[in-house]
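agent: user wants the structure for ABC-2 type transport system permease protein from Salana multivorans. delegating to structure tool.
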Amino acid sequence: MTTSTERPTTAAPTPRPGWRLALTHTKFQILETVRIPIALVGNLVFPALALLFFVVPQREVADNPVFATAAVAQLGMFSVMSVAMFTHGVGVAEDRALPFDTFVRALPAGAMPRLMGRILTGLCLTALALVPLVLVGWLLTSATLPLGRLAASVGVVLLVAIPFTLLGLSIGYWLSSKAAIAIVQVVLFPLAFAGGLFMPPEVFPPWMNSISLALPSRAGRDLLVWVTSGQQLPASTIPVFLGWTLVFAVMAVLAYRGDEGRRYR
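agent: tool returned. relaying tokens verbatim.
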């Protein structure tokens, strides 16, 4: 007489959808960032302080609704650039130095959920960075944003973050963490000054204004100022914005593939 020795079968675990994995990565990347609050101070405080010290005392600018709104939009563009380049440039470079990043990239889910999580983290930090700037502009200047322009402004903020997210990713996948910090700073501040984010481009001499109009920071600034204050959009803005977005997209893809070829060959 024989007895059956069949082993009980267990159902294979159902894989999580990619969007849930992306939200999980977003949650833990935000928690990892806020565990060191000082890391947020620069992005949260600097644009608001610049508005407080350089725009609010100039009452001819602060009391003019169009000029004040344009000033807030310019510094808002700096917040977008700063968060995108530090979060994706320095953050990706630091992650690549960790053994855990190698393990995560080798998982069957692939790199996309982690990449989407990082992009969502950058968007959340961008929204957080705009809060003190908007509060200072609302309380201490005549800056206004009608409800009819609010939704469009949110959309343009997301739009102008795209090229600088791609630039940050290309820096993060190309360079080591120490080099990425230096390069981000070297790239960020000249682009901000020349793009008219710290002073209105109307005060630029003609030769400097011509250079400024060809920069991605100026294109992003002009789009934000246009949607928030209604000022005229230069004819070169859209082609320049699309051209730089394409260039940064190619750089990001090449940097990612190059990193994958070096580390996972």
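agent: one observation worth passing along. The radius of gyration is 22 Å.
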